[in-house]
Amino acid sequence: MTSQVSKTVLRLEAEDVRGLNDGINFKKNQEDGKCYIIYKVKDKIRACVNQCKHQGGLFIKDIEDLDGRTVRCTKHYWKLNVATMEYVNPPDSFMQDELEAVLSDTDGSLELVELNPPDPWTAEPREAQELHAGEITLTYITHACMELKAGNKRMMFDPWLIGPAFARGWWLLHEPPSDAMDRLSQADLIYISHMHSDHLSYPTLQRLSKKRPDIPIYVGDTSRPVFWYLEKSGVNLTNINVVPFGVWQNVDEHLRFMILMDGIHPEMDTCLIVEYKGHMILNTVDCTRPNNGRLPHGVDVMMSDFAGGASGFPMTFHGGKYTESWKADFIKNERKKLLNYKTQLVKSLQPKIYCPFAGYFTEAHPSDRYIKETNSKNSAADLNESIRKSCPNILTWTPVPGSVLDLALALKDPSNRRVITEPPNGTKIFKDSWDFDLYLDELKASASAEIFKYKSWIQFYYNWAGFKDYNLVIRVTETDDDFKPLKGGYDYLVDFLDLSFPAVRPKRDHAYEEIKNRVNVMRMSRDPDVYHHKFWNHFQTELPLSAPDWDRFLQIACETDVPNESSNACALF
């Protein structure tokens, strides 16, 4: 099998994008002559190759179409509704393969992106065999961590068992089973979906490495490597396997898995298909558009995130429209949209069993009380109720730590009470303490590092980051937990047009953001109120893979800079 790749098949410049009509547009790639259909309504765009799935004919506008959504094949008059990507004549026949339409926030251009092959799991198909009770089980551990037992092999997904994620921002909602770390160290293999710290948990991996440093760990071949920080972390893991997308990885005679990329964030996000004796388990994890929206139908088990509330927007924004009532309405609407999207996704894929996971976190630290109370999230039970109303034939599972699903029993008789085994009565489900001091002492030590005694770390860091030639000025103010300026803390400006560090804002017209920065949360205002995707994307996914050479910085700073003994600053990102 060849590796799955992502390819831009058509690019339109901003002027061409502005020239798109509402409804159906036909476009040709002048380099290779291939034709595409772009459907535009308001600010939403869908696109596909202009080729009928029946016998490869070209589509043209349908003269009988009254609503501007349908095209007609020139060969046999098949009709495609481009708004839904469904063939309407003949009905119930095909779905058109959709391209990912990526609209740039920076220059207004549009790229149509294609995954090739689009459905690699169909390679080397295997017939589903009969399963015996206990042959395939899923045991929920906590958050996105699930243990899959298939035959005599055990596989763990995204183990976050101890400590915080995102500095001190997130903590585990559920208490992992008491033997969770032993289960992890005895697994045959581990899959880690991406580098976010609620999936790639260095406190967990640090403890694992002391027990079994050579445990096989598998990650996708993302352009932003999952383990880019491993060497600096001090965690000793010696058997990390980076595998290509869309290629079956054989574990034994019956068990194999395939890692797929996310269509929105292919540089860092992945999802997973596991197959055992022809039975498929789909784990989409946090992917926004897993495999560009093309996924296997009718899998035995599907798992996905559900909660929402993972972003700092809009809770950490203030000024202008960002009143408490506006935030509450926005969050409510976003939760509703996510719940409806997940319901429709499950309905379209028709898995036999659905389990919401990867959303069991809480903002437990007292300093984050406002965010916890404001940033309400969907519950797994609410999503499962929505799915049952829409798809009563799908078995839903709302897991608690230590609960076990037996796939063979579920397939034979979903109503069998033994399908799901709950943990014993009295088992602790929710955490009520988190050892804050144990982990926050490390954060405090980092914030007190010697590099922050020298003001020139600011220039050194942003020069290393390499973001420039963008008309944005930011002001960063170091604060305490209440977002009040820290006495002796840093307060500086960065002008990204020429990557300079002025004492006052420049007189030219420019976008401006104020960022009040404490240990793990930034409070923001911006003028104009525009999201600068290029800026944020750079600092989240495009920083150099080699960390700043702080040893070299200290050698220079000790000779040329005057130390600021009172600062506890930490870098913006």
From TrEMBL:
GO terms for biological process: CMP-N-acetylneuraminate metabolic process. Keywords: 2Fe-2S, Electron transport, Iron, Iron-sulfur, Metal-binding, Oxidoreductase, Transport. GO terms for molecular function: 2 iron, 2 sulfur cluster binding; CMP-N-acetylneuraminate monooxygenase activity; metal ion binding. Pathway: Amino-sugar metabolism; N-acetylneuraminate metabolism. Its EC number is 1.14.18.2. CDD domains: Rieske_CMP_Neu5Ac_hydrolase_N. The keyword Protein transport does not apply. GO terms for cellular component: cytoplasm. It catalyses: CMP-N-acetyl-beta-neuraminate + 2 Fe(II)-[cytochrome b5] + O2 + 2 H(+) = CMP-N-glycoloyl-beta-neuraminate + 2 Fe(III)-[cytochrome b5] + H2O. It holds the Pfam family Lactamase_B_3. Residues 8-110 form the Rieske domain. Sialic acids are components of carbohydrate chains of glycoconjugates and are involved in cell-cell recognition and cell-pathogen interactions. Catalyzes the conversion of CMP-N-acetylneuraminic acid (CMP-Neu5Ac) into its hydroxylated derivative CMP-N-glycolylneuraminic acid (CMP-Neu5Gc), a sialic acid abundantly expressed at the surface of many cells. Belongs to the CMP-Neu5Ac hydroxylase family. This is Cytidine monophosphate-N-acetylneuraminic acid hydroxylase. The lineage of its organism: Eukaryota, Metazoa, Chordata, Craniata, Vertebrata.
